[in-house]
Known about the structure:
Helix content is 33%, strand content 28%.
Amino acid sequence: MYLILLQYIRPVAAVEHYLEAHNAFLEKQYREGRFILSGRRKPRTGAIILCKAGSRREVETILAEDPFDKFQLAVYDIIEFEPNTYELADVSS
């Protein structure tokens, strides 16, 4: 399992220009069962993604498809971890 910390390196206005394409990228990853959750950081400096992948290289390959990466709008900190305790809960609040 991987926690991806996405940090914007361009102004939010530039990020918003590619937001629709980024959202399409996210939807594809959810459909393919790779992403478990994602959301904006507060304050709006980037985002967090929880990713299910077999290796760090696979995560890097996935992220290379993100328009935020292609257009150099963000950098990613990829943190591998092994979940051993969790609670199934509604995280929408």
